[in-house]
Amino acid sequence: MDQIFNKLKGDKWIWIIVIVLSGWSLLAVYSSVGTLAYKEGKGTELYLFKHFSIIAIGIGLMYLSHKLDYRYYAGISKLLMIITIPLLLFTLIGGNKVNDASRWVTIPVINQTFQTSDLAKLALITFLARMLSRKQEDIKDVKKSFVPIMGAVCAVFVLIAWANLSTALMLFGTSILLLLIGRISFKQIAIVSLGVGLLGLIVIAVGPRRTTYFSRIEGFFRSEEVASGTVSFQEDKNYQANLAKMTIASGEFFGKGAGNSVGRNLLPHPYSDFIFAIIVEEYGTLGGAILLALYMALMYRCIRIVTLSPRAFGAFLAAGLGFSLTIQALANMAVAVGLGPVTGVPLPLVSMGGTSILFTSVALGIILSVSRNIEELKDKEELYEAPRTKKVVVGTI
């Protein structure tokens, strides 16, 4: 084990958290894909092998990302933004449409779907980190700093929100946190927030998924009527969240045990959107608390990297990517326990998925690259100071 960790640079606790979450993901996904396997006439082992392959590729990408000096990502972020905007436009116009939402494009040759918003999240956060670190001297200048920074944020928000409002809102929230850390004025942030809020209302009112949005919001606020008996469970528009709450409640404190979930046969997408409910049912409230603690520990380690980073770009990278992963995890858990309307956001590193796991792994690799750079600088400082602090023993004749 020591030999393995000697080859892995960066924060060792982040590596441990990723390994634990990945192992837990294999157990949870294997337990929850039974209904999907039955519908498609395939064995559950096939899904387990596929999920394991994606996790293995993700860890490989994480390793490669952490080996690359994080300062190179400043240049890569420009290229990613140049690719992302046209790709999001193409997704809206010619992407694969599921439930009135065009979120995926099919990659030629390998014939695999690809969710472009995952790339957009990584591209925008790295681009913001680059812009904020380079514009600190003129950060209050509207023309030089505010317009190009907020132009990128608003453009990506609108293009994602049209088909995936929940992801767009979480990305905007992460961007606002980064802007606050980057010393953008509160007045400017308030103006943009009002503008983005108006854009969000327009998307909800006239967008292609307006019926779904209104249904989920109405169902969320009418959930008490189901409990009181004035609305039947079949008529409840928030039935997915109610099933999730019932599944969670049945797990009690210690859970039913791995593989003993009943809710997996009732919940839609128990292997992705509602995998947290399955985990709590099988591992209990205790298991759910441990999972939450792992994400909080991940955020803590990211904040620690932010405080130790000697360069602004590295600090902004670790903060933005760390906030993005944690906010997504909290949003998924909040939906499962009934604290928010259904969003369809996966649980990072745990839910079954392709592009979500891969881009999450790359994001963690970039954070580890910042941490690796901090360690290398510390080692150089110790090496430089060692000769000056070394004691000299003078012998006697």
UniProtKB/TrEMBL annotation:
InterPro entries: FtsW/RodA. Pfam families: FTSW_RODA_SPOVE (PF01098). It catalyses: [GlcNAc-(1->4)-Mur2Ac(oyl-L-Ala-gamma-D-Glu-L-Lys-D-Ala-D-Ala)](n)-di-trans,octa-cis-undecaprenyl diphosphate + beta-D-GlcNAc-(1->4)-Mur2Ac(oyl-L-Ala-gamma-D-Glu-L-Lys-D-Ala-D-Ala)-di-trans,octa-cis-undecaprenyl diphosphate = [GlcNAc-(1->4)-Mur2Ac(oyl-L-Ala-gamma-D-Glu-L-Lys-D-Ala-D-Ala)](n+1)-di-trans,octa-cis-undecaprenyl diphosphate + di-trans,octa-cis-undecaprenyl diphosphate + H(+). It is a multi-pass membrane protein. Belongs to the SEDS family. FtsW subfamily. The keyword Membrane applies. It is found in: Membrane. This is Probable peptidoglycan glycosyltransferase FtsW. Its EC number is 2.4.99.28. Its main location: membrane. The chain crosses the membrane at residues 12-34, 46-64, 76-94, 145-162, 189-207, 274-300, 312-337, 349-370. The keyword Isomerase does not apply. PANTHER family: CELL CYCLE PROTEIN (PTHR30474), PEPTIDOGLYCAN GLYCOSYLTRANSFERASE FTSW-RELATED (PTHR30474:SF2). Keywords: Cell shape, Glycosyltransferase, Membrane, Peptidoglycan synthesis, Transferase, Transmembrane, Transmembrane helix. It comes from Sphingobacterium griseoflavum. The lineage of its organism: Bacteria, Pseudomonadati, Bacteroidota, Sphingobacteriia, Sphingobacteriales.
